[in-house]
Design a protein that fits this description.
7-stranded mixed sheet, Rossmann fold, alpha/beta
Length: about 300
C-alpha cells in the first residue's frame, strides 16, 4: 500500500512516496479505501518542524488528519459500515487505505460529492464552531481574514447568511474576487499598507491569518475576535478570553479543538448544510497523492484558492 510520509523535518521535498504493509481493522474499526485527503496548512507547518513537541511527531511519519472514502472491510462489531461512503478525522491520512474507529466516522449524505464532503472534514466543522461562538447578529460588520481559503470562504458565507455586512481581507485580486462571489460586500488586500485603516472597524473579526495581519485585525474588532489561524506567522493572540477596557472578547484555537463526538456531530451538520446549499466549500485545486509535495508548495506560496485536496 502506498503512503506519503515525512522523511525528516524540512521543506516539501521531505514528503516521499513509500510502500507500507496493508492495515487491518480490529474490533470496532473499519478499513477505508481513501478517495480524497484533506490538506491543511497545519500539515505543512508540522512537516517543517513547527509544533513537533506539542503534537508528538517524530519522522518518519504519515501526515494528514482527514479523509473521505468507502468502507471496504470491518472488524468485529463494525460490519454494518461495509459499503458506506464516509469521512473521518484520522491520523496518517496521506494514504491509499486507513483504519478508522467507528466513533470517528460520519456518513456522507446522499447527493453530496465526495470532494465536497472531504472539504468539510476540518473547515466545515471549524467554521461552524467558531461562527456559533461569535453569535453574529444581522446588520453587524464582520471581517474575515484569509477570506479566500477553505475555512475563510465558509465563514464569509455564514456571516452573509446571518445578515451581516462582510468585509473580506485576502492577498491579491483573484482571491478578493472569489470572496466577493461568495458574499463579501467589501474586500481589501492586506498586503497593501493601510488596509486596516480602510476597513475602519468591525463588530466581529474571524482571523485565519495570524501574525502581523492578525494583530492589525485585532485593532479593528469592536465586540468579538476569533484568533483561530496562524498561517502568517503565529496566532494573533494567546487565545485567552479577555475583556479589557476595549470590551472585546478574544477566543483562540481552543474553539477548533473538539472531542471526537463533537467533531463527528459538526462534520455531519456541515455536510447537511452543504446538501441544503447553505455551505458551499470551494475546492480550488487537487493533486494526486504522489504529488503531495506540490500541494504543500502551493499552500506555502499562497498560490491556492479555497480548499486543497489530494486525490487517491
Amino acid at each position: 500500500m502506498r503512503v506519503v510520509r515525512v522523511s525528516g523535518f524540512g521543506g516539501p521535498e521531505v514528503l516521499e512516496l513509500a510502500e507500507v504493509p496493508e492495515p487491518v481493522p480490529g474490533a470496532g474499526e473499519v478499513l477505508v479505501e481513501v478517495s480524497t485527503v484533506d490538506v491543511l496548512f497545519l500539515d505543512a507547518s508540522l512537516r517543517s518542524g513547527w509544533g513537533a513537541e506539542y503534537f508528538g511527531l517524530e519522522p518518519p511519519y504519515v501526515p494528514g488528519d482527514g479523509i473521505a472514502g468507502r468502507v471496504t472491510a470491518a472488524g468485529e462489531g463494525a460490519e454494518a459500515w461495509v459499503g458506506a461512503e464516509v469521512v473521518a478525522r484520522t491520523p496518517g491520512a496521506y494514504a491509499e487505505r486507513v483504519v478508522v474507529g467507528v466513533k470517528d466516522l460520519a456518513k456522507v449524505p446522499e447527493g453530496l460529492g465526495v470532494q465536497t464532503a472531504a472539504a468539510l472534514v476540518h473547515d466545515g466543522a471549524t467554521a461552524l464552531g467558531v461562527f456559533d461562538n461569535a453569535q453574529v447578529k444581522p446588520g453587524e460588520r464582520v471581517l474575515v481574514t484569509a477570506a479566500a481559503g477553505g475555512l475563510g470562504i465558509l465563514l464569509v458565507q455564514l456571516a452573509r447568511a446571518a445578515g451581516a455586512t462582510v468585509i473580506a481581507a485576502a492577498r491579491g485580486r483573484e482571491k478578493l474576487e472569489l470572496a466577493r462571489e461568495h458574499g463579501a460586500s467589501e474586500a481589501v488586500d492586506y498586503t497593501e499598507p493601510g488596509w486596516a485603516e480602510r476597513v475602519g472597524s468591525a463588530d466581529v473579526v474571524f482571523d485565519g491569518a495570524g501574525g502581523e495581519i492578525g494583530r492589525a485585525a485585532l485593532g479593528i474588532a469592536k465586540r468579538w475576535f476569533s484568533a483561530h489561524g496562524a498561517s502568517s506567522g503565529g496566532f494573533a493572540t494567546n487565545g485567552a478570553t479577555t475583556g479589557g477596557a476595549s470590551g472585546v472578547t478574544v477566543k483562540g484555537i481552543e474553539q477548533a479543538q473538539f472531542t471526537p463526538e463533537q467533531a463527528v456531530r459538526l462534520i455531519g451538520r456541515a455536510m447537511d448544510e452543504a446538501v441544503a446549499g447553505r455551505m458551499n466549500p470551494v475546492v480550488g485545486q487537487t493533486f494526486p497523492l504522489a504529488e503531495a509535495a506540490k500541494a504543500h508548495e502551493a499552500l506555502e506560496a499562497r498560490a491556492t484558492l479555497g480548499k486543497t485536496l489530494l486525490v487517491v
